[in-house]
Amino acid sequence: MLSAAVCGMLLAACGRLPGPGQPRIVLDEAAFANRAATAFRVRLDADGKPATTVVGTPKEWRVRKEDTLLDVARYFGLGYGEITQANPQLDAWVPTPGATAVLPTQWTLPCCTYKGLVVNVAEMRLFYYRHEPDRPNELWVFTAPVGVGRPEHPTPRGVYKVRAKTENPTWVIPESIRREHIRERGDHRRSIAGGEKDNPLGKYRLALTHGSYAIHGTNIAWGPGMPVTHGCMRLYPEDIARLYPLVPVGTRVELTYQPVRFGKRGAEMTVQVAPDVYGKTRALGDEAVRAAKRHPELRGVSPAAIREAAERSRGLPVAVGGARHAAPATDPSADRRQVRAAR
């Protein structure tokens, strides 16, 4: 549940109750292109590890008659799976005007490598970590939702590298996909030139050292947060445009699958459960109980309490033990920039 202070901030600045005299946010391509990147600075402990592994702050949005949850999700850097998991009572395309939508803009960093690119396939989200020489006691974290492979073409797991970067990439259509195109719509093309409207790679591609897999943009802006690809990872156009110039060739890329993640927020431990896109875990509450055994901080917390917290998560970190820590370990500047952009 959001605090009164947070809710008050949202009412004043984030368009939760749009009306006369209040800022009116138009959720269109211009707004998406100009929205703030979802990025944070995390303090590092003396051992070089993050002082917190939970970043961001949850928000709320009062639904207007012109809104879809997909537009709201994109404006706040969320994927389809995240916003629908947090709001199961709302129709994604025609949400009830006046209803309050929870924005799960708080994330647990996947365990346990905080270097380069990490994609948690289970939650369909990418994290990029940078250690900046002039800020040795901080870790810069960029995060964005991604579309991943369909269940019949799952995104693989493993550790790879970025082998090449391409702007306006030509899509050389794999033969298996080409046969699908011929069968489904009579399209016999073997490639689609860069810049074409139906090129699914979008404007930027980071090719990986694993077959033809890549992290790239998209020509259909609703793919992030959905299992819609043949194994590659798609980002919103504005997110890949920000990420592309930051990532050098040779960057480490880890593709992991962590539907249940425990986080550290000061002295407090949290659990966060992702949509588990491939349904690999039968009972996420039971998986949380098993995973908790790897965290000494949770000794003494009952399995029932851990299971209940995991089942209550709905895509947001939920406290499971430890004392509350008042001082934030992340720089909330990304949230402030989003609020300024909304005005």
Describe the structure.
The chain is of the alpha+beta class and 343 residues long. The chain has three domains: 77 residues, Membrane-bound Lytic Murein Transglycosylase D, Chain A (Roll), CATH 3.10.350.10; 141 residues, L,D-transpeptidase catalytic domain-like (Beta Barrel); 62 residues, no CATH class. Helix content is 22%, strand content 26%. A nine-stranded mixed β-sheet has the order 1-8-7-6-17-10-13-14-16, covered by helices on one side. It is globular. 42% of the residues are buried. The N terminus and C terminus are likely disordered.
Main attributes of the structure:
L,D-transpeptidase catalytic domain-like, 3-stranded antiparallel beta sheet, Membrane-bound Lytic Murein Transglycosylase D, Chain A, single chain, 9-stranded mixed beta sheet, alpha+beta
In a nutshell, what does this entry contain?
22% of the residues lie in helices and 26% in strands. The protein is α+β, with helices and mostly antiparallel strands.
Mean pLDDT: 86
Give the C-alpha Rg. Answer: 20 Å
CATH H-level homologous superfamily name of the largest domain: L,D-transpeptidase catalytic domain-like
What is the CATH topology assignment of the largest domain?
L,D-transpeptidase catalytic domain-like
Q: Strand arrangement, largest sheet?
A: 1-8-7-6-17-10-13-14-16
Q: End-to-end span in angstroms? A: 25 Å
> What is the helical fraction, as a range of percent?
10-25%
Please name the CATH architecture of the largest domain.
Answer: Beta Barrel
How many separate helices? 9
Helix-strand string:
HHEEEHHEEEEEEEEHEEEEEHEEEHHEH
Number of domains: 3
Form type: globular
What percent strand?
25-35%
